[in-house]
Amino acid sequence: MIEPLTVPADARPRPDYLTGTKGLQIGGIEVPARSGRTFATVDPVTEQPLATVSAADAADVDAAVAAARRAFTDPAWADIAPYQRTLLLLQVADVVEANAEELAVLESLEMGCPLTQTRWMIHHCVEVFRNHAGWPTKLYGQTAPSASSQFQYVLRQPLGVVGAIAGWNGPLLQMVYKIAPALATGNTVVCKPSEHTSLSTLRFAELLAGTDLPAGVVNVVTGDGKVTGQHLMSHDDVAKVAFTGSTATGKHVLATSASNLKRVTLELGGKTPYIVFADADLEKAASICALAFCAGSGQACVAGSRIFVQEPVRDEFTELLVGAMAPYRAGLGDPFHPGTRMGPLAFRGHYERVNGYIGLATEAGGTLVTGTEPIAGGGLYVAPTLIEGLDNKSRVAQEEIFGPVSVLMGFRELDEVVDLGNDTVFGLAASVWTRDLATAHRAAARLDAGSVWINRGSQMSAGPLPFGGHKQSGLGREHGTQVLDAYTEPKSVIVELS
Ligand code: NAD
């Protein structure tokens, strides 16, 4: 029996921010939904309501898009010097940093992720704003070669209103990955956080009152995806949708964008292979593989949900991996307990979905190497679960589970494991463990993934490297210089001089 770590109810944080109905953030003010409708956001530890949040419908989305549209042409935003834009982004970073603890607590309360991890995510938001603050003064256009009778150049201009739609596993961070480049390039934003995790994005927008950012540059509408999200992404005055979420919703976003040919970037699901060759540092590989599918209770797009190990070391590695998972099993518990390494899953529907996949694994003939022990007190906890005995074609090895579950499979040589790693509709990331440089580089070149990590696990970029997916893991990139193309439109200008 696993006994989750608990915290007495009166010792759990209860920020003042949770009091009262949380309104929408439109044009720099908090407003209720016009319909008066609200919904409850739920604490996954207690499964009790945490806060009441306004449910935006079409009229509210229209108001938010109109506010963002006005801000887009407001001289206080549209006409400022690039360096002033840099200073505004730095102010935003400062305000997040100054309120980091409150934002991290709100995220831990809403998604159940350990406070140590939400603190890291909020700190990363600060880094992302500071990194993007450097872009405004470096957003060069081009001059083009032309006859002496003409002058030709290319301007790089913002798109307009960006609809930013995010998932629940890193709510503010996923939003900041969109807000920071949008602002750095002169766009304005309407954010739609996940209905499971609205609070940190709402609070962030409220905190912007402490900066010089003009009202309406960042707006937030909260509510259900099929209502609030749907209106936002199909709005004709929204020039671009920047989306993070499931591949199924991402495909719907792309199809809907055809109505007015919106620009679209999609950060979607994954089925990341961790590939361990016999010559690797097995102990380190085991420790990072455990982290890769246990951290955040495996609710990560880059979770190491498939582990391929070279046959000669399979038994030895499995034993090391099970050992490396032990601290996560022992650290299952309340996100506010200092010993917690894995919190509950974010909400009941998702908990049932993950357990459904574990049931499917055993029905399909898989063996649970770990994850069979019952958990005291029920709740939404799922123990780290390692599955053997399934092949890469099984549903459990093909579909994104988004929980602390990984399938361990064997392989003999490089060609075989590259084929296995690539044999999925996803292509977000891959991790390769070997001391042989040639093997490492060959694998990196041939794996169909937006990011490949050699002898390490995932590393989220605050700036220099583009992040995004191949195949059905996404479209376009966040970060890197590539992100600038995703938030600007080139304009060719021809000046007749003669
Ligand atoms: P989801 O697709 O259910 O929801 C994502 C967002 O879309 C939410 O805000 C939701 O309200 C909204 N939405 C749902 N239906 C909509 C509709 N019809 N119109 C407009 N918006 C709609 O995804 P989720 O469960 O919140 O997030 C988990 C998924 O996100 C996983 O697949 C994970 O891999 C992926 N993810 C990807 C990355 C990445 O960078 N590639 C990062 C984190 C999460």
From TrEMBL:
Domain of life of the native organism: Bacteria
Q: Which Gene3D superfamilies match?
A: Aldehyde Dehydrogenase, Chain A, domain 1, Aldehyde Dehydrogenase, Chain A, domain 2
InterPro entries attached here? Ald_DH/histidinol_DH, Ald_DH_C, Ald_DH_N, Aldehyde_DH_dom
Q: Does the keyword Oxidoreductase apply?
A: yes
Residue intervals of the Aldehyde dehydrogenase domain: 34-493
Q: Which UniProt keywords apply?
A: Oxidoreductase
* UniProt entry tagged with the keyword Oxidoreductase: yes
PANTHER family attached to this UniProt entry: ALDEHYDE DEHYDROGENASE-RELATED
This chain's protein is named Aldehyde dehydrogenase family protein
Question: From which source organism is this entry?
Answer: Pseudonocardia ailaonensis
